[in-house]
């Protein structure tokens, strides 16, 4: 039967969402990915270019692996007998704690927003995404400033109850593993909320009504029907949150939590031991690939099909009285912890120190961040477009696998990429310098190492997956008939891309560029390692001053990063609008009674 005659929803599957594309349509899932035009030498050249870019992007990861097994600096015995077990244990505990809290918080709020109506729901459904705009290290700095011994909260408590010193009362230590789990969870839960809410909203009301008809309670319907169907999407969200937790260096270092990422930074820059840092980085890569494997395992054999032509979407049920206000409270608390409290602190600091903060240095940091982010976003779009179009044209399995592997950089922490980039660039500079000395009689010095190029390269490797995923999704929506017509009229592959595809995928290109730009503005670990001397961005400026307990003087820079990060949150909210009803003539009944979870 032709594809256009299939019933609506017959091919809907929930196991195809990819952890790097946030559930966007996969290139392989769309019939439009196959070009009907014969393959020419120009098409094959696109595959060769794609292989070159894939190798270039994969080089840092390969470099880390080679350095880790190098016998010249074998630090494994020393690392295993001293710091490595502690790094691994702390990292596992932190990721487990963040994973559990983000799962509970993100899934609960997503279910309430998707199936219930309560006071403030329309505002909260997008406010719950706002913590994504704030980097974890900025939240950490504000919470330490508020909850430490000399902070606002403990000072107020001592004044109210007459306590004189720390021996008179007990207060949880914010600079601890528990404090890091709490703070990072309320910044990263939107990853789970985003994917879980999208999954809940796509579930058919018919399935949940059948569950209720067969005797399941509201809680039983949620746990045994709705939650299992959303499991693939929730697994994607939890994995993303845990990867961001693994990548973080500013927050965990400020909390005094020695994770593997902190170990890389201190071993290399603090102790000057590159071999040991590379070997710790290889352990981080094992964590990354283990997370990817677990995410795939959590989504394994999860396929759900809608076989009815009268499929109906969920209609939110109105919660009244105390139940409605309880739902409002549950959804408000994550927003308060993840955005409102840090935002109020930063605004207060920025206003109080505006004259000092709005200095020429601030504008120089903003200019540096802007230049790096614009250049990196442009390069990521160009390379992402090349890879996505080559994937569309090529029928070679080797080329397609190489292109997919090029997207793994998003899962690799910035500190690991820093090592994988700096070492080969330094060796290349040494080769060029030696060649110039021998043949030309002068020294070239360091041409690439410690320059803006190395930072831009790290940004492109780190965030290429975002650009590639968005562009691939946009290309997948272009019918192959248009491309076939252009090729029939004599256009080459490049001509068809320029005259047919580019005008149609401009929204996807703009979205990809914006997302990469914002992530580059917030990136800290790679920037710390690769930046030139006396070169600061907004992120490194905030990190440096907060480390010196001078958050007030960097609050304006922190607010600038947060303001830029709100833009993609608005875009995400637009993609999560409630779907239109497919059968508006059919009466829609509430699926959950007043005693719903």
Can you offer a commentary on this structure?
With about 600 residues, this protein is mainly alpha-helical. The chain has a single domain, classed as MetI-like (MetI-like fold, Orthogonal Bundle). The chain has 24 helices and two strands. A two-stranded parallel sheet has the order 1-2.
* Strand count: 2
User: What radius of gyration results from the CA coordinates?
Assistant: 26 Å
Report the principal-axis shape: globular
Domain tally: 1
Distance between the termini: 42 Å
What is this structure's SSE topology?
Elements: H1 41-68, H2 76-81, H3 84-115, E1 116-117, H4 121-127, H5 136-147, H6 152-161, H7 177-202, H8 205-213, H9 218-247, H10 250-254, H11 260-270, H12 274-298, E2 317-318, H13 321-352, H14 354-357, H15 360-393, H16 397-405, H17 414-439, H18 452-476, H19 480-488, H20 493-504, H21 506-522, H22 525-530, H23 538-547, H24 551-575
Helix pairs in contact: 1-12, 1-15, 1-16, 1-17, 3-7, 3-9, 3-13, 5-7, 5-13, 7-9, 7-13, 8-9, 9-12, 11-12, 12-17, 13-24, 15-18, 15-21, 17-18, 18-21, 19-20, 21-24, 23-24
Short description:
The chain is mainly α and 597 residues long. The chain has helices at residues 41-68, 76-81, 84-115, 121-127, 136-147, 152-161, 177-202, 205-213, 218-247, 250-254, 260-270, 274-298, 321-352, 354-357, 360-393, 397-405, 414-439, 452-476, 480-488, 493-504, 506-522, 525-530, 538-547, 551-575; strands at 116-117, 317-318.
What are the key terms here?
MetI-like fold; 597 residues; globular; mainly alpha; disordered C terminus; disordered N terminus; two-stranded parallel ribbon
């Amino acid at each position: 039967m032709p594809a256009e005659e299939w019933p609506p929803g017959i091919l809907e599957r929930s196991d195809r969402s990819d952890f790097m594309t946030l559930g966007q349509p996969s290139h392989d899932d769309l019939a439009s990915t196959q070009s009907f035009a014969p393959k020419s030498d120009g098409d094959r050249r696109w595959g060769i270019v794609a292989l070159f870019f894939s190798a270039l992007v994969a080089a840092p990861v390969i470099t880390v692996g080679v350095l880790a097994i190098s016998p010249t600096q074998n630090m494994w015995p020393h690392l295993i007998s001293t710091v490595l077990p502690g790094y691994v244990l702390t990292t596992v505990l932190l990721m487990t704690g963040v994973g559990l809290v983000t799962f509970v918080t993100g899934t609960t709020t997503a279910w309430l927003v998707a199936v219930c109506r309560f006071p403030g729901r329309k505002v909260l459904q997008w406010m719950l995404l706002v913590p994504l705009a704030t980097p974890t290290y900025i939240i950490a700095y504000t919470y330490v400033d508020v909850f430490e011994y000399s902070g606002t909260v403990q000072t107020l408590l001592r004044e109210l109850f007459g306590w004189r010193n720390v021996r008179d009362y007990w207060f949880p230590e914010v600079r601890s593993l528990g404090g890091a789990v709490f703070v990072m969870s309320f910044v990263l839960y939107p990853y789970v909320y985003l994917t879980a809410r999208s999954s809940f909203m796509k579930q058919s009301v018919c399935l949940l009504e059948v569950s209720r008809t067969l005797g399941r309670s509201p809680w039983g319907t949620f746990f045994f029907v709705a939650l299992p169907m959303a499991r693939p999407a929730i697994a994607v969200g939890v994995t993303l949150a845990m990867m961001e937790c693994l990548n973080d260096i500013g927050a965990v270092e400020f909390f005094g939590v020695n994770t593997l990422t902190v170990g890389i930074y201190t071993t290399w820059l603090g102790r000057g031991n590159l071999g040991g840092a590379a070997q710790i980085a290889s352990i981080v890569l094992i964590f990354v690939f283990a997370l990817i494997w677990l995410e795939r395992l959590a989504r394994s054999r999860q396929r759900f099909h809608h076989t009815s032509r009268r499929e109906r979407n969920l209609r939110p049920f109105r919660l009244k009285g105390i139940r409605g206000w309880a739902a409002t409270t549950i959804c408000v608390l994550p927003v308060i912890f993840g955005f409102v409290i840090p935002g109020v602190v930063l605004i207060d600091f920025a206003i109080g120190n505006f004259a000092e903060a709005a200095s020429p240095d601030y504008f120089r940091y903003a200019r540096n961040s802007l230049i790096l982010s614009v250049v990196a976003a442009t390069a990521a779009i160009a390379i992402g477009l090349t890879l996505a179009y080559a994937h569309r044209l090529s029928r070679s399995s080797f080329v397609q696998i190489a292109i997919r592997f090029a997207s793994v950089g998003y899962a690799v922490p910035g500190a690991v990429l820093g090592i994988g980039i700096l070492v080969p660039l330094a060796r290349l500079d040494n080769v060029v310098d030696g060649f110039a000395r021998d043949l030309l009689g002068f020294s070239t010095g360091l041409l690439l190492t410690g320059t803006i190029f190395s930072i831009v390269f790290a940004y492109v490797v780190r965030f290429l997956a975002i650009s590639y995923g968005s562009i691939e999704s946009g290309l997948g929506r272009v019918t192959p008939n248009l491309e076939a017509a252009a090729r029939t009229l004599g256009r080459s592959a490049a001509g068809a891309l320029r005259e047919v595809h580019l005008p149609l995928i401009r929204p996807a290109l703009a979205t990809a560029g914006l997302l990469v730009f914002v992530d580059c503005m917030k990136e800290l670990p790679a920037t710390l390692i690769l930046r030139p001397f006396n070169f600061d961005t907004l992120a490194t400026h905030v990190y440096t001053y907060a480390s010196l307990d001078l958050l007030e003087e960097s609050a304006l820079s922190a607010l600038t990063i947060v303001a830029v990060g709100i833009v993609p949150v608005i875009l995400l909210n637009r993609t999560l609008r409630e779907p239109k009803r497919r059968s508006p003539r059919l009466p829609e009944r509430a699926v959950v009674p007043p005693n719903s979870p």
